[in-house]
Amino acid sequence: MKGLQLKINDVLLTGAIEKGSTSVLLTCRDGVWQVSFASLNETAMVSYIWHFSDLKEGDKLSVAYIDVEEDTALSPAEIRDHESQEMMDQLSLKTYYQLKEELIREGLLPKAY
Question: Organism's domain of life (predicted)?
Answer without folding.
Answer: Bacteria
